[in-house]
């Protein structure tokens, strides 16, 4: 199975452990980090979503004009624009980028964050709206004839979009760790995304999504897992660096994007699962380290894989063996880590998969 690597870019440097040194929108930094990911062999980069931060579609358009092949996974929350408008927005962006766009659908796990943008639906209502929204997007991208819709959240008549994606549709990436998320994602997602949990828990979540897909007679989506790799030339130096990063988390005034309002009792199930794993042990499996999730309140993908590039590559392959074919990796030092991943980590994973594929061909 081929493997894809996703990074993360922003318009400003900094992270939970490193203070920002640039303006919120720094065009030069945005260009530099996008090109660093392209040069490092990443397939795509994620552009996150926050009620307070720059619009991801516009950042993607800017970065795409300064790169050649890098894909852009734009985080998007249903509910704040009509799906008919979103269909045209992202199809237009896809055309201008030559088919380099995918969507990361964020249903929303934080009520307070949703309300900042004016959304007062409950969690289950949001998932129902997301399912309806995604059905409309798919139809808008593929229908050559006008169609009407009357559902629980959207109603329109005789809509047809003249602008279509470069390919038949735009890939949908989807996340969530609740039963409602599994149901919606199994129906609509091309790739289902998880945060970095221990192997047994990821295997459990994959089984849940596959079970939901089988229930509706749909082929299960692909699977992605997100980590924060911390590399070192030796195991000892990698762990020294990890402890140094941990010591800075909390002392840095992190962007609101990275914060949980209630760090000890987050509302979303994904953060709850990370904190539950961290409460059991700081270290899991080959290289998974959950102390960073505990320190940051697990506001996003915050668990690390710690070790030499060889150790971390093998740890990623442990998840690959469970059926994971996409890895979102971003560092606590975003720019420098992306360069290091491209120099040592990504090639090691791809080389091992190529070796396995060649061995299978010989055996066949």
UniProtKB/TrEMBL annotation:
Residues 20-325 form the Luciferase-like domain. SUPFAM superfamilies: Bacterial luciferase-like. InterPro entries: Luciferase-like_dom, Luciferase-like_sf, SsuD_RutA_monooxygenase. Keywords: Flavoprotein, FMN, Monooxygenase, Oxidoreductase. Transmembrane segments: none annotated. GO terms for molecular function: monooxygenase activity. CDD domains: Alkanesulfonate_monoxygenase (cd01094). It holds the Pfam family Bac_luciferase. PANTHER family: ALKANESULFONATE MONOOXYGENASE (PTHR42847), BLL6451 PROTEIN (PTHR42847:SF9). This is Alkanesulfonate monooxygenase.
């Amino acid at each position: 199975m081929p493997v894809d690597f996703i990074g993360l870019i922003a318009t400003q440097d900094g992270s939970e452990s490193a203070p920002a040194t640039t303006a919120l929108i720094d065009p030069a930094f945005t260009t530099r980090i996008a090109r660093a990911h392209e040069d490092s062999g990443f397939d795509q980069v994620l552009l996150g979503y926050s009620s307070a931060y720059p619009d991801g579609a516009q950042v993607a358009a800017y970065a795409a004009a300064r790169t050649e092949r890098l894909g852009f996974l734009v985080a998007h929350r249903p509910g704040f624009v009509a799906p008919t408008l979103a269909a045209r927005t992202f199809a237009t962006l896809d055309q201008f980028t030559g088919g380099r766009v995918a969507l990361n659908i964020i249903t929303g796990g934080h009520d307070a964050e949703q309300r900042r943008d004016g959304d007062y639906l409950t969690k289950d209502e949001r998932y129902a709206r997301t399912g309806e929204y995604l059905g409309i997007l798919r139809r808008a991208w593929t229908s050559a004839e006008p169609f009407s819709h009357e559902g629980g959240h959207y109603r329109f008549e005789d809509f047809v979009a003249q602008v279509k994606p470069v390919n038949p549709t735009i890939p949908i990436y989807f996340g969530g760790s609740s039963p409602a998320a599994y149901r919606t994602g199994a129906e609509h997602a091309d790739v289902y995304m998880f945060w970095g949990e221990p192997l047994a828990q990821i295997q459990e979540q994959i089984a849940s999504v596959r079970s939901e897909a089988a229930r509706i007679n749909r082929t299960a989506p692909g699977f992605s897992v997100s980590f924060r790799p911390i590399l070192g030339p030796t195991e000892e130096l990698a762990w020294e660096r990890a402890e140094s990063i941990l010591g800075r988390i909390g002392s840095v005034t992190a962007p609101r994007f990275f914060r949980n309002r209630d760090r000890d009792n987050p509302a979303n199930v994904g953060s709850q699962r990370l904190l539950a794993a961290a409460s059991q042990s700081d270290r899991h499996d080959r290289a998974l380290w959950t102390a960073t999730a505990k320190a940051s309140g697990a506001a996003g993908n915050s668990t690390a894989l710690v070790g030499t590039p060889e150790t971390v590559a093998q740890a990623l392959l442990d998840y690959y063996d469970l059926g994971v074919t996409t890895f979102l990796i971003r560092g606590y030092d975003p720019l420098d880590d992306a360069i290091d991943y491209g120099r040592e980590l990504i090639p090691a994973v791809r080389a091992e998969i190529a070796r396995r594929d060649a061995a299978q061909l010989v055996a066949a």
